[in-house]
Design goal:
By secondary structure, the protein is α/β, with parallel strands linked by helices. 47% of the residues lie in helices and 17% in strands. A seven-stranded mixed β-sheet has the order 3-2-1-4-6-5-7, sandwiched between helices. Strand 1, helix 1 and strand 2 form a beta-alpha-beta unit. Helix 5 packs parallel to helix 7 and helix 5 packs parallel to helix 8. The chain is globular, with a radius of gyration of 17 Å. The two termini are 34 Å apart.
Amino acid sequence: MTNLFNPCILIPVYNHEKPLPGIVERLAVHQLNCLLVDDGSDASCAAVIRGLAEQYAWVDSIRVEVNQGKGTALKLGIRALLAKGYTHALQVDADGQHDLEDVDKFLNAARQAPEAVVIGRALFDASIPKLRYYARYLTHIWVHINTLSWAIPDSMCGYRVYPLVSSAKLIQSIAMENRMGFETEILVRLYWQGVAVISIPTHVRYPLDGVSHFRAWEDNLLLSQTHARLFFGMLLRWPALLIRHFQ
Protein backbone atom coordinates (compact mmCIF):
# COMPACT_ATOMS: atom_id res chain seq x y z
CA MET A 1 0.00 0.00 0.00
CA THR A 2 1.19 3.54 -0.70
CA ASN A 3 1.21 6.32 1.86
CA LEU A 4 -1.72 8.73 1.78
CA PHE A 5 0.57 11.48 0.48
CA ASN A 6 3.76 10.45 -1.28
CA PRO A 7 4.49 13.04 -3.99
CA CYS A 8 7.13 13.14 -6.70
CA ILE A 9 8.11 16.02 -8.99
CA LEU A 10 7.32 15.47 -12.67
CA ILE A 11 8.99 17.58 -15.37
CA PRO A 12 8.26 17.02 -19.08
CA VAL A 13 11.29 18.18 -21.07
CA TYR A 14 11.76 19.01 -24.74
CA ASN A 15 14.94 20.91 -25.66
CA HIS A 16 15.15 23.12 -22.56
CA GLU A 17 18.69 22.24 -21.57
CA LYS A 18 19.57 25.81 -20.51
CA PRO A 19 17.03 26.46 -17.72
CA LEU A 20 16.59 22.82 -16.63
CA PRO A 21 19.71 22.44 -14.42
CA GLY A 22 18.82 25.57 -12.44
CA ILE A 23 15.25 24.35 -11.95
CA VAL A 24 16.41 20.97 -10.66
CA GLU A 25 18.94 22.61 -8.34
CA ARG A 26 16.27 24.89 -6.85
CA LEU A 27 13.91 21.96 -6.31
CA ALA A 28 16.47 20.08 -4.20
CA VAL A 29 15.43 21.98 -1.07
CA HIS A 30 12.06 20.19 -1.06
CA GLN A 31 13.70 16.76 -0.61
CA LEU A 32 11.41 15.07 -3.10
CA ASN A 33 12.28 12.65 -5.85
CA CYS A 34 11.99 13.95 -9.40
CA LEU A 35 11.22 12.31 -12.73
CA LEU A 36 12.37 14.01 -15.93
CA VAL A 37 10.48 12.80 -19.00
CA ASP A 38 12.53 13.50 -22.13
CA ASP A 39 10.07 13.92 -24.99
CA GLY A 40 12.51 13.16 -27.81
CA SER A 41 14.89 16.06 -27.13
CA ASP A 42 17.93 16.74 -29.29
CA ALA A 43 21.25 15.17 -28.31
CA SER A 44 22.48 18.20 -26.34
CA CYS A 45 19.39 18.33 -24.12
CA ALA A 46 19.28 14.54 -23.75
CA ALA A 47 22.86 14.68 -22.47
CA VAL A 48 21.90 17.33 -19.90
CA ILE A 49 19.00 15.19 -18.70
CA ARG A 50 21.22 12.12 -18.33
CA GLY A 51 23.80 14.22 -16.51
CA LEU A 52 21.24 15.49 -13.99
CA ALA A 53 20.06 11.94 -13.30
CA GLU A 54 23.68 10.93 -12.67
CA GLN A 55 24.48 14.00 -10.57
CA TYR A 56 21.49 13.80 -8.21
CA ALA A 57 20.45 10.56 -6.51
CA TRP A 58 16.87 11.87 -6.22
CA VAL A 59 16.50 12.52 -9.97
CA ASP A 60 15.46 9.84 -12.46
CA SER A 61 14.70 10.08 -16.17
CA ILE A 62 12.86 8.26 -18.93
CA ARG A 63 12.89 9.04 -22.62
CA VAL A 64 10.51 9.03 -25.56
CA GLU A 65 12.79 8.51 -28.56
CA VAL A 66 10.72 10.60 -31.01
CA ASN A 67 8.99 13.81 -29.94
CA GLN A 68 5.27 13.15 -29.54
CA GLY A 69 4.09 16.11 -27.49
CA LYS A 70 3.75 17.28 -23.93
CA GLY A 71 0.60 15.23 -23.37
CA THR A 72 2.41 12.02 -24.27
CA ALA A 73 5.24 12.86 -21.87
CA LEU A 74 2.81 13.60 -19.04
CA LYS A 75 0.81 10.43 -19.62
CA LEU A 76 4.01 8.39 -19.53
CA GLY A 77 5.22 10.15 -16.40
CA ILE A 78 1.92 9.80 -14.53
CA ARG A 79 1.73 6.07 -15.22
CA ALA A 80 5.39 5.57 -14.30
CA LEU A 81 5.07 7.40 -10.98
CA LEU A 82 1.97 5.46 -9.97
CA ALA A 83 3.77 2.20 -10.76
CA LYS A 84 6.62 3.32 -8.47
CA GLY A 85 4.22 3.79 -5.55
CA TYR A 86 3.80 7.57 -5.55
CA THR A 87 0.41 9.09 -4.85
CA HIS A 88 0.80 12.55 -6.43
CA ALA A 89 2.78 14.23 -9.18
CA LEU A 90 3.85 17.86 -8.81
CA GLN A 91 4.17 19.04 -12.41
CA VAL A 92 6.63 21.84 -13.14
CA ASP A 93 7.48 22.98 -16.66
CA ALA A 94 11.08 22.82 -17.89
CA ASP A 95 11.33 26.30 -19.41
CA GLY A 96 11.65 28.18 -16.13
CA GLN A 97 8.32 30.01 -16.32
CA HIS A 98 6.98 28.82 -12.95
CA ASP A 99 7.59 30.47 -9.58
CA LEU A 100 9.24 27.70 -7.57
CA GLU A 101 8.71 29.67 -4.38
CA ASP A 102 5.11 28.40 -4.58
CA VAL A 103 5.98 24.69 -4.49
CA ASP A 104 5.06 24.36 -0.82
CA LYS A 105 1.68 26.03 -1.45
CA PHE A 106 0.83 23.41 -4.07
CA LEU A 107 2.07 20.51 -1.96
CA ASN A 108 0.29 21.67 1.19
CA ALA A 109 -2.99 22.06 -0.69
CA ALA A 110 -2.65 18.54 -2.12
CA ARG A 111 -1.71 17.13 1.27
CA GLN A 112 -4.84 18.61 2.85
CA ALA A 113 -7.11 17.39 0.01
CA PRO A 114 -5.38 14.32 -1.45
CA GLU A 115 -8.27 13.37 -3.75
CA ALA A 116 -8.31 16.80 -5.43
CA VAL A 117 -6.32 18.11 -8.37
CA VAL A 118 -4.43 21.30 -7.49
CA ILE A 119 -3.94 23.74 -10.37
CA GLY A 120 -2.14 27.01 -10.86
CA ARG A 121 -4.00 30.15 -11.87
CA ALA A 122 -1.39 32.05 -13.85
CA LEU A 123 -0.61 35.69 -13.05
CA PHE A 124 1.33 36.96 -16.05
CA ASP A 125 3.81 39.75 -16.54
CA ALA A 126 4.52 41.48 -19.85
CA SER A 127 6.64 38.57 -21.14
CA ILE A 128 3.67 36.49 -22.33
CA PRO A 129 3.13 36.59 -26.12
CA LYS A 130 -0.06 38.45 -26.94
CA LEU A 131 -1.48 35.69 -29.14
CA ARG A 132 -1.14 33.18 -26.31
CA TYR A 133 -2.57 35.65 -23.80
CA TYR A 134 -5.81 36.13 -25.73
CA ALA A 135 -6.03 32.49 -26.82
CA ARG A 136 -6.02 31.50 -23.15
CA TYR A 137 -9.20 33.46 -22.53
CA LEU A 138 -10.96 31.62 -25.34
CA THR A 139 -9.92 28.34 -23.73
CA HIS A 140 -11.17 29.57 -20.34
CA ILE A 141 -14.59 30.26 -21.87
CA TRP A 142 -14.75 26.79 -23.43
CA VAL A 143 -13.75 25.13 -20.16
CA HIS A 144 -16.50 26.99 -18.29
CA ILE A 145 -18.98 25.81 -20.93
CA ASN A 146 -17.75 22.22 -20.92
CA THR A 147 -17.91 21.95 -17.13
CA LEU A 148 -20.96 24.21 -16.68
CA SER A 149 -19.04 25.77 -13.79
CA TRP A 150 -16.31 28.20 -12.75
CA ALA A 151 -14.40 25.43 -10.98
CA ILE A 152 -11.40 25.52 -13.37
CA PRO A 153 -10.26 29.15 -13.71
CA ASP A 154 -7.08 28.27 -15.64
CA SER A 155 -6.78 24.94 -17.45
CA MET A 156 -3.57 25.79 -19.32
CA CYS A 157 -1.14 26.49 -16.49
CA GLY A 158 1.27 23.55 -16.30
CA TYR A 159 2.00 24.09 -12.62
CA ARG A 160 -0.22 21.58 -10.81
CA VAL A 161 -0.49 18.49 -8.61
CA TYR A 162 -2.16 15.41 -10.05
CA PRO A 163 -3.72 12.73 -7.82
CA LEU A 164 -2.14 9.76 -9.55
CA VAL A 165 -4.76 7.05 -9.08
CA SER A 166 -7.65 8.97 -10.64
CA SER A 167 -5.41 10.56 -13.29
CA ALA A 168 -3.83 7.28 -14.40
CA LYS A 169 -7.21 5.54 -14.45
CA LEU A 170 -8.53 8.24 -16.75
CA ILE A 171 -5.49 8.01 -19.02
CA GLN A 172 -5.95 4.25 -19.28
CA SER A 173 -9.66 4.47 -20.03
CA ILE A 174 -9.81 7.08 -22.80
CA ALA A 175 -7.60 8.41 -25.57
CA MET A 176 -6.74 12.04 -24.87
CA GLU A 177 -4.82 14.77 -26.69
CA ASN A 178 -1.07 14.09 -26.98
CA ARG A 179 0.12 17.68 -27.18
CA MET A 180 -0.64 20.91 -25.33
CA GLY A 181 -4.37 20.27 -25.18
CA PHE A 182 -3.86 17.35 -22.80
CA GLU A 183 -3.51 19.68 -19.83
CA THR A 184 -6.93 21.18 -20.49
CA GLU A 185 -8.61 17.91 -21.41
CA ILE A 186 -7.54 15.95 -18.36
CA LEU A 187 -8.78 18.68 -16.01
CA VAL A 188 -12.21 18.77 -17.64
CA ARG A 189 -12.48 14.99 -17.60
CA LEU A 190 -11.33 14.75 -13.98
CA TYR A 191 -13.98 17.31 -13.09
CA TRP A 192 -16.59 15.28 -14.95
CA GLN A 193 -15.62 12.31 -12.77
CA GLY A 194 -16.25 14.28 -9.59
CA VAL A 195 -12.66 15.18 -8.71
CA ALA A 196 -12.47 18.45 -6.77
CA VAL A 197 -10.34 21.28 -8.15
CA ILE A 198 -8.23 23.60 -5.99
CA SER A 199 -6.82 26.71 -7.67
CA ILE A 200 -3.73 28.59 -6.48
CA PRO A 201 -2.68 31.97 -7.96
CA THR A 202 0.94 31.88 -9.08
CA HIS A 203 3.21 34.21 -11.04
CA VAL A 204 4.28 33.00 -14.50
CA ARG A 205 6.70 34.45 -17.03
CA TYR A 206 7.65 33.29 -20.54
CA PRO A 207 10.24 31.59 -20.91
CA LEU A 208 13.77 32.07 -19.54
CA ASP A 209 15.64 30.51 -22.47
CA GLY A 210 13.62 32.27 -25.15
CA VAL A 211 12.25 28.97 -26.48
CA SER A 212 8.57 28.12 -26.55
CA HIS A 213 7.34 24.94 -28.18
CA PHE A 214 3.76 26.16 -28.43
CA ARG A 215 2.93 26.17 -32.14
CA ALA A 216 0.54 29.07 -32.45
CA TRP A 217 -1.65 27.88 -35.32
CA GLU A 218 -1.22 24.11 -35.09
CA ASP A 219 -1.70 23.87 -31.33
CA ASN A 220 -4.61 26.31 -31.31
CA LEU A 221 -6.27 24.18 -34.00
CA LEU A 222 -5.74 21.05 -31.90
CA LEU A 223 -7.11 22.87 -28.87
CA SER A 224 -10.21 23.82 -30.84
CA GLN A 225 -10.73 20.18 -31.79
CA THR A 226 -10.30 19.17 -28.15
CA HIS A 227 -12.87 21.75 -27.01
CA ALA A 228 -15.31 20.45 -29.63
CA ARG A 229 -14.94 16.85 -28.40
CA LEU A 230 -15.40 17.98 -24.82
CA PHE A 231 -18.48 20.01 -25.77
CA PHE A 232 -20.26 16.93 -27.10
CA GLY A 233 -19.17 15.06 -23.98
CA MET A 234 -20.68 17.84 -21.86
CA LEU A 235 -23.99 17.51 -23.69
CA LEU A 236 -24.21 13.92 -22.47
CA ARG A 237 -23.51 15.00 -18.90
CA TRP A 238 -25.23 18.38 -18.58
CA PRO A 239 -27.96 17.40 -16.09
CA ALA A 240 -25.44 15.97 -13.60
CA LEU A 241 -23.06 18.89 -14.16
CA LEU A 242 -25.80 21.45 -13.50
CA ILE A 243 -26.84 19.66 -10.31
CA ARG A 244 -23.22 19.62 -9.15
CA HIS A 245 -22.79 23.29 -9.98
CA PHE A 246 -25.77 24.42 -7.94
CA GLN A 247 -24.90 22.13 -5.05
